[in-house]
Amino acid sequence: MSGAMSGRTVVVLPDLHGRADLLRAAVHRYPEAHFLGLGDAIDRGPRSLETVQLLMDLHAEGRATLLMGNHERMMQEGLRWYRQYQSTRDMTDYRRGMEGFQWWMRAGGETVRREVSPLTLEAFPPLLEAYLAVLRRVVYVTDDGQIHDDLPTAPSVLVSHASPPVQHPRHPNPLSAALWLRPFEGPFPLPESVIYSVHGHTPVPIPTRLGRHLYVDLGAYETGRLAVTELNVQALPKVTVLCGPGRPELGGRYSRFGEPLAAQAEQLPISSPRF
Q1: Which residues fall within 8 angstroms of residue 187, CB to CB, at 6 or more apart?
Q2: Residues 6+ apart with CB under 8 A from 33
Q3: Is pLDDT above 80 for 271?
Q4: Mean per-residue pLDDT for 263-269?
Q5: Which GO terms describe its molecular function (predicted)?
Q6: What's the pLDDT tens digit per position in 146-171?
Q7: Model's pTM, two decimal places?
Q8: Looking at the domain assignment, is residue 156 inside a domain?
Q9: What CATH number does residue 261 fall under?
Q10: Does residue 42 fall inside a structural domain?
Q11: pLDDT-derived band of residue 69, with 50, 70 and 90 as boundaries?
């Protein structure tokens, strides 16, 4: 099938991991679009707080819908227990908060600590807490460009961080599975009315299609390559790879599976090595 969405343009932003420069480039390229963030906007890369601030500004303007990734979920864990401890004063809650906080630190949160000092549960950045409060897990986009939390009757595209929401032995809660599962842990059935699904989480060297599932995380924080994806309910999306400063050769380490998804590359103007 061919054609474009009949409503507003919805552009999916895969895992940014602190690459505020690539986010700015995407906003510049699509000045009228509504952005749908796949999550993992934080840590690992150099400028998590600036990235989150830009996303929150877009959200406040009604120009972005933001999803949770597994890194946001790890960031949330310690804070959630610490907020409970503030009510209960139960040291078990505090211990769980500290364990959750260290889980995030080990998985990438330490890079955020370099931006924010001090970064503790007691001095948690209000911006990051506000960001957590607006995140959704799974959405469906219909041909009119509208974004739904529940499966619509009309044809749609399913968008979530890692996989469709399915019951899985390791993740009995489908909304948890949608944050963590890798392609090789499928198959992931889709409702009949869903044309295809779009995910990040699993880095790939090139945009990749596996059945009706599309994977567009190109490891932007280290490769400098961001696969922005214009959704199209009537056909496969248009994918443009924004190429900024980074080490694209590192993409050669990522898993190869499925088949390539058509994409065009666009070289961004040279900027500071600091990103």
Answers
A1: 211
A2: 8, 9, 10, 11, 63, 230
A3: no
A4: 96
A5: bis(5'-nucleosyl)-tetraphosphatase (symmetrical) activity; phosphatase activity
A6: 999 999 999 999 999 999 999 999 99
A7: 0.95
A8: yes
A9: 3.60.21.10
A10: yes
A11: very high
